[in-house]
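Section 5: illustrative case.
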């Protein structure tokens, strides 16, 4: 097994991502971030499970900027650019007991369109095994904080099945990492803000 290239964001408290260990135990790249949320853990999980970035201009901008490294080659012959991929492109792998959920994505992410492979569910994600095509798992976990409230954590893992895909994905990872990190921070901040507003509205 290759050594994972670990890059860690703000971690207030660490927990094992059980679903990610189930769906992508082997990985080459990982990114982790977390936030302390002053709200009921169950409510935080509900907000995280229904989060939709579609109406967030900041999110859209970051997704666009993340695609800039591929822009020189991203135009087709008729001048149109392939669509970018975001959270809407992921498949739900599994959701567990108000605590954790896992999303999956399969494709050649370093290419302009991502060359995404449709994945129906968790079983299909586990079964997928083709050379040259990477697998990505995105997890969210909500845990009870000892001093009250919750810790909301997210982790992204990427597995490249062979040297060719690893060689192609590695430079892409380091090019998009700043934007990917900002996107993760934004997701957590919005979920935190929405959860805490719910607390304020009921108090």
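Designed sequence:
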């Amino acid at each position: 097994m290759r050594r994972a290239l670990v890059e860690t964001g703000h971690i207030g408290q660490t927990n094992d991502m059980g679903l990610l260990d189930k769906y992508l135990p082997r990985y080459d790249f990982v990114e982790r971030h977390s936030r302390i949320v002053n709200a009921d853990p169950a409510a935080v999980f509900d907000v995280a499970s229904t989060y939709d970035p579609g109406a967030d201009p900041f999110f859209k901008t970051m997704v666009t900027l993340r695609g800039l490294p591929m822009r020189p080659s991203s135009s087709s012959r008729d001048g149109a650019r392939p669509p970018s991929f975001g959270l809407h492109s992921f498949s739900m792998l599994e959701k567990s007991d108000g605590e954790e959920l896992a999303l999956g994505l399969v494709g050649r992410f370093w290419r302009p369109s991502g060359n995404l492979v449709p994945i129906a569910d968790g079983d299909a994600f586990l079964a997928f095994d083709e050379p040259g095509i990477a697998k990505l798992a995105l997890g969210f976990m909500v845990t009870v904080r000892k001093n009250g409230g919750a810790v909301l954590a997210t982790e992204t893992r990427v597995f490249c099945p062979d040297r060719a895909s690893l060689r192609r994905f590695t430079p892409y990872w380091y090019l998009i990492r700043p934007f990917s990190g900002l996107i993760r921070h934004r997701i957590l901040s919005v979920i935190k803000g929405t959860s805490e507003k719910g607390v304020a509205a009921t108090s």
